[in-house]
Amino acid sequence: MATVFLPFALRKYADGAERVVVPASTLGELIENLEAAYPGTKRHLIQDDALKPGLAAIVGLVATRRGLLQKLDDDVEVHFITAISGGASLTDRSRH
Amino acid sequence: MVATFEPKTDYKVVGTRPIRHDGYDKVTGRAVYGADMKLPGLIWGVCVRSPHAHARIKSIDTSAAEAMDGVFAVITGADMPEAPSKLVDLGEGSVNFKWASNKLMADKKVIYKGQPVAAIAAVDRYTAEEAARKVVVKYEKLKSVTNVVDALAADAPIILEDLVGDDLGEDVTNTNMAEHIRHEFGDVEGAMAAAAHTIEREYNMEMVHQGYIEPHNATAVWDEEDRIKIWTSTQGAFPARTQIAGILQVDVSRVKVTPLEIGGGFGGKIPVYFEPIAALLSKKSHRPVKMVMERTAVFETTGPTPGGRMVIKLGADANGKLTAATADIWFEAGANPGALIGPAAMCVYAPYEIPNTRIDGWDVVVNKPKTAPYRAPGSPQVAFAMESAIDELCKEVGWDSMKFRSDNASREGTRRGDGVLFGKIGMEEVLEAAQASAHWKAPLGQPPAGKKRGRGIASGYWFNIGLKSSANLAVVSDGTVSLVEGSTDIGGSRAAMAMHVAEVLGIGAHDVRPTVGDTESVGYTDVTGGSRTTYATGYACWIAANNLVDELKKRVAILWDISLEDVGFNDGVFSSKAEAEKTISFKELAGKLGDLGGPATSTGSVDLESAGDGFGMHIVDVDIDPETGKTDIVRYTAVQDVGTAIHPSYVEGQLQGGAAQGIGWALNEEYFMTDDGAMANSSFLDYRMPTSLDLPSIDTVLVEVPNPLHPYGVRGVGETPICPPIPAIANAIANAVGVRLYKTPMNAGSILEALK
Question: Which domains does chain B have, with CATH numbers?
Fold first, then answer.
């Protein structure tokens, strides 16, 4: 089970919860299970079958470089934060 | 699973101070920079730039320019390929191809002063400049906004009519607000209400530039096979290739970027500017085209770091423990979104453990050049606010500000303001080292007659990144090794890379000849930025060197006709595990490879998670003349957890350079904007950066807490040292003259005004 620290913009999908517990063995599975439990979250995290550009997933203490394939240990923390690149958004909107 | 390493101390090469491999070329002028480029048939390119910060382009007439003798090509926004709205990470910073294209060459509207509206290629620079003056552009001038308050006002002109802003996940249109983010943890309101002591202050900062000496440049050849060759000054040849291909809408394999020597970057040479324009001029003229930027254009049109507005509120209990904090951060993005508010939010509370926190950040579009990373982008700004507020809170309550920082210091298990946990970090060790330093223990002393002296301290943080790096090695028959690596060398990294290899192979640092490769001679390597280069590219070099040892063991097995498992290697000598007397040195073996299978080569590549969190504290003594407001820095010490210092001189140089840039930012530097959106001080004469005459010798204290994520314990170094100087100087000024400044630059005029 992973503890997901929800970005503030996604907390509205989980009744304002700061963190939620999700069963998953990989980051990709976690996002799928998060979407199943809290519909609407996935589109903020995934683009073209990968983490959205400008978004970093912190697994444990470090930003994963394995993307959705990242394996998750039991009781690991997962954070989705703005990557150092900045200028990106958690929202699924197109910028023209 | 992330690999971890136990700390070592018995190094032969790591920790020594060899002369840098590129030193002689640099000091004799032989090193080749972009402005030195020469090619057969080379012609010059220049840009026609907008005199307005915000205007619609009614028409562009290039006919007179095109008719001039010696003019080979003229392009306008109509010649720019239509790039898609696609965001791509660049390692430090990101690029949206559509906006990047528009930034380089306006089409229907200009959104910052100096934005190119056309470009000319001609037989020489003077002809090109003369032709540029013949281009007639008719504008409809629009009202401009150059700060976050004006840009967010209800009646503000909208700079990007098609911008869809993001307000905590909700789309917003007809706005200059590109993004609003929030991090919130714990019961902030409850904790703040229960705090025994609180402080709330507003801070404002002007935009500043990195101020690198070498202007941007590019030479381009668009050949008959539609291959594009670029020679340029860049912090990353591969991210430059990504941008050029994206803006020009060609396959990335059609672009080859050769990085030349670089005269400073500090984040500002991650974006491309001239490269796509020179390529299009080359395509149209069928000649190589070279462009070198004027200093005024460097200031007006390349990527400075954001100014903005910040409001910090802190709550502490009666025992001096921080219990709550809020931060509101508005940053100027420039004319396109991307003010790096994310990193600012990560850094604002990082040196301290605070259980209840909220951070709001706004990315605001203004009629200024699009900002770019600048050494710990976003962190110096929030350090100014946070560390000033801490100092003022301590003064109000009567707490010792050093003890307060120690009592609240982040440690393993502390959560950053964005919720992420710290692993092993060195903040407490830094504070201990600062308190043990000669500077901190020394009395403040008396200032010269008529002046007032004060001391200030401040902490700073940068999270340091890992990412992708590659290196290639080849053994040379004389016992040396050629190294090709992908990282632009800005601060002596070639020497550090060679030292990584030499340590593994048991040879001298100068037995390794390092070269920075182009995009077709080494594997993908991310930017020299994010304090990642020595960590990640060094790691790739370490892997390549170990792979080379494995390859050479095979050759030794052939030489002695023994099994591979029986070959040992230690400290530059191969040996037989079965017959101890059988040994051969690396250098001897190099000369025998011709009969042992031929050339021996290896590669190393990494994609790493983090370069280890970096913490620092700076101590500064200032003398202030109350009559003139002038501030003299009389003593300065930078203390930082640097992990293992591969080449201590270059680590010390990073700390000194960061401090020097921070001092300039604190005291003098600013984009001084006129009412119509023009920068009034776009020269080094008027944009006052500190010189050696303005600075004392900056002492350094290297706290070496090895980073377990690197085989030698390397931690990112280059960005943290620009974070503490601004608040340290603000705190020193307050200590000296009893008034506090809440706005940068804290120049003589500001101090005199505050003393009234």
Answer: 23-31+465-609 (3.30.365.10), 378-464+612-755 (3.30.365.10)
Indicate yes or no: CB of B85 within 8 angstroms of CB of A90: no
Measure the CA angle with vertex B3, ends B2 and B5; round to 5°.
Answer: 140
Provide the residue range defining the domain that includes A71: 2-82
Query: Per the domain annotation, does A59 fall within a domain?
Result: yes
Neighbour tally for B286: CB within 10 Å:
13
Tell me the residues of chain A between 20 and 79 that have a Cβ less than 8 Å away from chain B: 44, 53-54, 58, 60-65, 77, 79
Residues ≥6 apart with Cβ < 8 Å to B467: A65, B91, B526, B530, B532, B536, B607, B608
B110 residue type, one letter: V
What's the CATH number where A44 sits? Answer: 3.10.20.30
Find out whether B485 and B471 touch, Cβ atoms under 8 Å: yes
A13 part of a folded domain: yes
The string of pLDDT tens digits covering residues B487-540 is: 999 988 999 999 999 999 999 999 999 999 999 999 999 999 989 999 999 999
CA-based nearest distance B405→chain A, Å: 24
Peptide bond connecting B725 to the previous residue in cis, omega within 30 degrees of 0 = no
Residues forming a β-bridge with A55: A82
pTM over 0.80: yes
ipTM of the modeled complex: 0.90
B727-746, pLDDT tens digit by residue?
A: 999 999 999 999 999 999 99
Task: Write the residue in A53, A61, A87 that is nearest to B337 by C-beta.
Answer: A87
Torsion, CA B200, CA B407, CA B186, CA A8, rounded to 10: 70
Residue B15, amino acid: G
Distance CA B465, CA B667 (A): 29
- Taking phi over 0 as left and psi of -120 to 50 as alpha, with beta for the rest, B60 belongs to beta
Q: Let me know if residue A90 belongs to a domain.
A: no
Using DSSP bridges, classify how beta strands B255-259 and B228-232 pair: parallel, antiparallel or unpaired.
Answer: parallel
